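lol ok so funny story. i was supposed to be doing the assay writeup but got distracted and ended up predicting the structure for this chain instead. priorities right. anyway since i did it might as well share w the group, maybe its usefull for someone
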Amino acid sequence: DTLNEASPQPWRTLRWCDSMRRRGYLFENTRKLQIRWQATTRPPVSSSLSAACAEISRSLRLLTYLESLELFLGPANLMTHSEPIHAIEHVIRGIQFPCLRHCSLGADYTKGVQPYTNVLPAFLVSAPALRHLKLPDHLCGLDLPPYALPYLASFRGSADTAATLLPGRPVQVLALVGQDSDVNRINLPRMTLTAVPLLYLDLSAMSVRPALLKNVSIHFTSVQRLRVKLALRHTLHYAFSGIRLLAGLSSVLSALRLLEELDLSPTDVDGIGRADAKEELVLVDEWGRASPLLRRVIFPSEAEWTRQGGGVWHLMQY
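and the output, tada:
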């Protein structure tokens, strides 16, 4: 639903809620639900979406066998509510999904909005089959008992949340959101305390400076795939200095001995075209020597190189 002054209510969502409650035969057959609200203008401070949140909650309780849930409530948490809990928690409070495997929960965030409370942990504890979790606007630690989420395999969210969620759980895929300054000497080591080696690290949602890359290479030595958005304004001027300055990544890659794929495509190059293929070839050769298992590199320009038989790098043509 798109919310604006002309259409302040999520009418599609409300129609779905009404239709679902009228069709009882769908309760046990519904496996996936996605609800997303987006505001085109800043909403007035009111309780206008509280009723819609309550409607979603009433309908969700009927979907006992739900396996995938995505709720993004847009501006709902920027508005006033009858109780001091997050808008998402108004929806999920008291609901249990024993079959839930994929879950993404969030809303628009700004400083000073209502944070999550203990309602969210209680919901997650009641989802023992959960494998994939996204909490983009949960910015603090998450207090869960050690036995909760025993099969969690991937997480996307803030560094502080990851630092309390990952230890002891079999998470192999981690995507961090926020600022690179949110990742610090306290929370970064705790993210490495997973029950199995972390294989895929996604830093494409933040602008990453060299200091963080260095710390990542020290702590995440098991990573096989790394996706990163470089903070070029802090490290090099892509237009005038050329991508040869990316050779500085060799010292980072030398610590990632298991790295197989390096994806720099999220990096913003401000419309600059791709560099000369000869320069890129020199770079991938250097990186390949630093990280022997590296076999695929995607540059900020989205030029893709793969290492094939005999250790020779080839530019992929699409």
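Residues 234-242 have pLDDT under 50 and may be disordered. The first strand starts at residue 2 and ends at 3.
back to the writeup now i swear
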